[in-house]
Amino acid sequence: xxxxxxxxxxxxxxxxxxxxxxxxxxxxxxxxxxxxxxxxxxxxxxxxxxxxxxxxxxxxxxxxxxxxxxxxxxxxxxxxxxxxxxxxxxxxxxxxxxxxxxxxxxxxxxxxxxxxxxxxxxxxxxxxxxxxxxxxxxxxxxxxxxxxxxxxxxxxxxxxxxxxxxxxxxxxxxxxxxxxxxxxxxxxxxxxxxxxxxxxxxxxxxxxxxxxxxxxxxxxxxxxxxxxxxxxxxxxxxxxxxxxxxxxxxxxxxxxxxxxxxxxxxxxxx
Length: 270
Fold this sequence. Notes:
- The chain is mainly β and 270 residues long.
- It folds into two domains: 16-166, Immunoglobulin-like, CATH 2.60.40.1250; 170-266, Sandwich (Immunoglobulin-like), CATH 2.60.40.
- Helix content is 11%, strand content 46%.
- The protein contains four helices and 19 strands.
- The longest helix has 14 residues, at 2-15.
- The two termini are 30 Å apart.
- The model is unreliable at 1-22 (pLDDT under 50).
């Protein structure tokens, strides 16, 4: 039943009318404004920049793993020039509960730091991207935007970008997580994964999010509990063919969120 409800929700989100067409008389400019912060050239020759999204009051957008009630952000950089690779530094997101479903994302004015590696060091980067994000108030709506910026010169440090970089989730070492183990059990249509993490509590209401490199695998909302210094989180993973599959534990990414903080755990042991 849970899988069916999530599938129906995903279909409804996909067929929702785009904001550009208007929602209660609103246009995309009323809901979200996009800006590339030019940033600076790093000592390694990369460009540290950021996407700043200014949201209308009461609206929110989504983290890279948005939860069952969210729309994952998508970026197409194919139109850019002198761009070899793109790396995001996601600040720790907030957790929203609405209509009995959980989503993960940002409100107000999120700044998403982006490190750009040029093909030709020292030369300008012509950044061109097609961006698709979900924005939500009472309903969730996909927004499609084209963003562009010509990034040249040394640039200058930007306090907004540095603050967003400092808001990233902590590493396992920084958070004092000394052990991350995963038990994997086959279920009829996939796998049940139970993570046991030895780490200090972040705060009340801890939420755990699981991710895999293969985004075609559906991952259920995790159930999280704590017994002293041990956090336990359980989820189900279902591939497109609805069958158990081989899971590389080193590829399991686990993020624990609470009290405005996050811990990013890369991989787990058996």
